[in-house]
Write a structure and sequence with these properties.
This protein has 120 residues and is of the alpha+beta class. 19% of the residues lie in helices and 20% in strands. It has one domain: Ubiquitin-like (UB roll) (Roll), CATH 3.10.20. The chain has a 5-stranded mixed sheet with strand order 2-1-5-3-4. The longest helix is centred in the last third of the chain and has 9 residues. Bound molecules: FE2/S2 (inorganic) cluster.
Length: 120
């Protein structure tokens, strides 16, 4: 029997096996969770916020803690989706990313144009 992982804001609940990471669970269920470094604890794009069941995730290791400090939207229950493993039922939220805080500029392409056209 698997555990239940609920993803917000989609409000989708899926089954997960023990020790699967949140990123693995998301990918297996076609839930979009960015993972620019491929799940190697080298970026913060897989940032998630735990809403329920914090104790049902594997404890945070130092590497994850250090990396999370670089995350612009850090909250007291933030984790990296590629580092925390499921040990029970959890509810997590994939935070909306602020386009002004992205590391990569490509994602900003066209953003200014959109603003300009909306002012007309
Ligand atoms: S995917 Fe880069 S830290 Fe998780």
């Amino acid at each position: 029997m698997g555990y239940k992982v609920t993803f917000l804001p989609h409000n989708v609940t899926v089954e997960a096996e023990k020790d699967e990471t949140i990123l693995e669970v998301a990918m297996a269920n076609e839930i979009e969770l960015e993972h620019n470094c491929g799940g190697n604890c080298c970026c913060t794009t897989c940032h998630i916020i735990v809403r329920e069941g914090e104790q049902n995730l594997s404890p945070m290791e130092e590497e994850e803690e250090d990396r999370l400090e670089e995350c612009a939207e850090l909250t007291p229950t933030s984790r990296l989706g590629c580092q925390c493993k499921v040990h029970g039922d959890v509810m997590i939220e994939i935070p909306e990313r602020d386009p002004f805080k992205l590391d990569g500029l490509e994602e900003l392409e066209g953003y200014g144009n959109e603003l300009l056209s909306s002012e007309q």
